[in-house]
Amino acid sequence: MDPLTGALLWDERCKALFGLPPDAPIDYDTFLSRVHPEDRERVQLLVRQSLEPASGGTFRDDYRAVNPQDGSERWLASTGRAFFDANGRAVRFLGTVLDITDRVREREAIKREKNRAATILESISEAFEAFDREWRFIYVNREAERLLGQPREALLGRNHWEAFPASLGTPVEHNYRRVAAERIPIFFENHYGPWDRWFELHVYPTEEGIAVYFHDITERKLHDAERERLLREQTHLRELTQKVLREQQRTLEALEHGEAFFMLDKDFRFILVNENQERLSQTHREDTLGRVFWDVFPAAATPTSRYWTEYHRVVEQKVPVQFEEYYAPLDLWTSVSAFPTTEGGLAVFFRDSTEHRRAEQFRDRLVGIVSHDLRNPLHSISLAAELLLRREDVPEPVLAGVRRIARSADRMSRMITDLLDFTRARMGSGLPLQRRPGELVELVRATLEEFEVTHPGRVVFSPGRGPYTGEWDPDRLAQVVSNLVGNALQHGSENLPVEISLREEDGTYVLTVTNQGSPIPEELLPHIFDPFRRAASSSRQGLGLGLYIVQQIVLAHGGSISVDSNAASGTTFTVRLPRDPTSR
C-alpha cells in the first residue's frame, strides 16, 4: 500500500482470500468493504496507528473477511509494517495475509466444547471440583460451592490442604494422592469431622491433576444406621419371644399363677389359657380352648375396638404391642401386652387396671374440686375484700385486717394454681396448652408493663430484630416471663436494672433474664427447678413451685431452661424455644 495515494497492490492469492478474481481492481475502500462489519472499525484503527511513527510501524490483527457473493466468512491473520522517510512520513506499507479459518474454527469448537462441559457440570446434581498437580482448585461447580460452604472465587487457585486442613491424614488425602500417583479412578466414602457429614466421592485422574465428583450422603447414613438399629431391636424382640415359646413347657406352671395369659393361633383360636385369665374373663378354659377369640368375646369383634386393631397388627405385622382398653360387658379396664409367636399367632398378657383408672378418675374429680369448689368461695372472699378496700367509711384498723385477708386470698389462689399445675405435670398428663399464633416481643412487652407500675425504671428489655412468630400459649409464656422477672426483681440489687433480651439463634428463640446481686448458692443450683424448693433466705410465702412450673411450661412448648449464677456476671435464666413450637 502507498500511504500517500492509498493505492493497493495485491497478489492473486490475497485477492482470492477476499473473494476477488485475479484481474479485479483493488483499492483501500474495496479492502474495507470485504472486512466483516464487526471487525472493520478495529482494523481501520490499527492501520492508522501503524502509519504513525510512534507505533513503530507494525500491524498485527486477526479479522474476518466476507465474500459478498455467497456471504461466506474467512478468518485472516494479517501482519504488516510501515516504512517512513526522514521526516517521519509513512511512504510504504508491506503486509502478508494468512488464512487461519480452520485454526479459529477448531479453537471455537474447543471453546464451545468446554462451555458445553461447563454447562453440564453446573447443571448436574453432584458436586464437582478439579485440582492441578499442585493441589490447587482449578474448577468448582455450583453444587460444590453449596456443599463446601464457600464461593468458587474464594477457592480457585487455593491449595486444597490449606483450604481444608482437616482432610490431612484422612482417606481423602490418601485416595487423592493415590489417584494422582497411580492414575486410577477410586470410589470411597468419608466422614468429614468438622461438619459431622458423610460424603460419597468418585475421584478420577486428569491431564491437569485429578477431578472429583461428590455428594452428601449423611441422611442416607443416618437412615441406614436407624434401620440397622430398628432391625436389631426387632431381631432381639423376635428372638426373645421365640425363646419364651421354646421354654413354654417349663414356664407353664409360672404362667398359670402369674398375670392373666392366653395364646391364640394365626386364626385367633385359643390354644392356651391360664387360671387368672379364667378369673378375669369369667369364662372357663374348657369353654374357650379351640374357639375363636371374637366368638368368645363378641363385644371386641369390631374394627373400632383396640383389641381388634392391635391383635390383628401383631399377627399381620409380627410386632409386639401394648395398650389399655375398656371391656364394657365385664366393666373392666385391661392393660394388655401382646407378642407375635413363631407359629403366626400371638401371646397375650394382661392385668386388671380398673383400680388405676378409677384412681385417675378420682384424681380428676379432686382437681375439679380444688379448681372449682375451693376457688369459688375464695373468689368471693377476694371480691368482698376488694369492695371493702374501696369503701371510704371503713376504719383504718378494719382496713388493715381486710388487706391481710386480700393478700392471704391472693396467696391461696396462687397456691391452688401452682398445686393444680404441679398435679398435672407430676401425674404425667403434662401442662395443658392453648396454642394460638402470636409474637414473642409483643407478649414479653405486655407482661413487663405490669412491673413498670410496681418497679418503674428497673426493667430493661432489649429484643433483637424479629419477627419472633409462632404458635404459643400466651398466658403460659406470660407466666414464665412474670415469674422469672419477678424473682429477678426480688433477689437482685435494688439499684441495678433487670435486663431481659430476646434473640434468634440457630432456629431457636432465646430469652434471657439477668439480674445483679448475690448469686444463687452453689449447692442450690442443681436443684433450682425441683418442686417445693426455696432459698433459705427467701421471705416469700409460697410453696416453692414457681420455677418448677416455669420449667414444665417451657418443656411443654418443646423448649429448655437453664440458669447460670456467679458474683461476676450475676444470675441469668435462659429460656430456649423452638422457632416452630409444635415440633419436639
Description of the structure:
The chain is an alpha+beta fold. The strands form 5 sheets. A 5-stranded antiparallel sheet has the order 5-4-8-7-6, with helices on both faces. The two termini are 86 Å apart.
* Shape assignment: elongated
What amount of the residues lies in strands? 15-25%
**Helix residue percentage:** 40-55%
**What would you call the quaternary organization?**
single chain
Amino-to-carboxy terminus distance: 86 Å
Quickly count the helices: 18
Q: How is the biggest beta sheet arranged?
A: 5 strands, antiparallel
| Strand order across the largest sheet | 5-4-8-7-6
The radius of gyration is 44 Å
Mean pLDDT, all residues: 86
* Unreliable runs: none
According to DSSP, the number of beta strands is 20
- Structural class of the secondary elements? alpha+beta
